[in-house]
Structure formats: structure tokens, C-alpha cells
Please model this.
Amino acid sequence: MILITAVVALLMLLVAFIPFKNNKQTFSARQATLDIRGGHVRLITFRIAGPSAQEQKIASQYGFTLAGMGCLVGYNPEQREYDSLVRAYLDERNGRGWYVRFYREVDSLNKIPHQ
Model:
């Protein structure tokens, strides 16, 4: 039983640290400019589960889609450039504090109603 538990724990750890190979999204300063001009802005997020349809709907109200990058937090230089340009654009589009307002709306999706 201990061996099975250890194997399962090891597998869970390995899966958590394997980069998502299907995630072939391109991020660069050039891509940010193209995305902003084309109206297809993506906000990079790091988490295990991908964004829900409700979260994407809220994001679209702020002018972007959520681009899930898996659970490993770590920007490469190109992602950092992309994110910097996109956030500046979103600050201009949505006003200061848009990020807090956005995440408050997302967090409200997860609130448990009082019984």
C-alpha cells in the first residue's frame, strides 16, 4: 500500500512539472503588436486547470482571452515582452485597476452561496 501511494505521489509530481507540449502559443513583442492591432489579445496565466467558459466571457468584456500556460510559473523573455505590451494596452483600454476588477469578477464565480 505504501509503495502504491509513493508511486502515485511521484507520478503526480512529475505531471505537475512537465511542460504542456500541446501549448504552442507564440509570444513576442511583434506578436503583441499584431494581436493588439487584430483585436486578439491574450493574457498569460499560469495554473493547473485551464480557464472556464465563464472566465473567458468575463475576460472578453475586458478585451482579451486567457492563455493558460500550465502550472509552472516562469516567463521566458518573449512572454515577458508580450505580457508587458499587452498589459500596457489593457491599462489604456480598461483604465487603471482593471486587473483587480477583473479578478474580483472571476473570484465571485467561485463564491459559495450562504445556506
Notes: Residues 5 and 100 are 40 Å apart (CA to CA). Strands lie at 42-45, 65-68. The chain has one domain: 25-107. Residues 77-94 form the longest helix (18 residues).
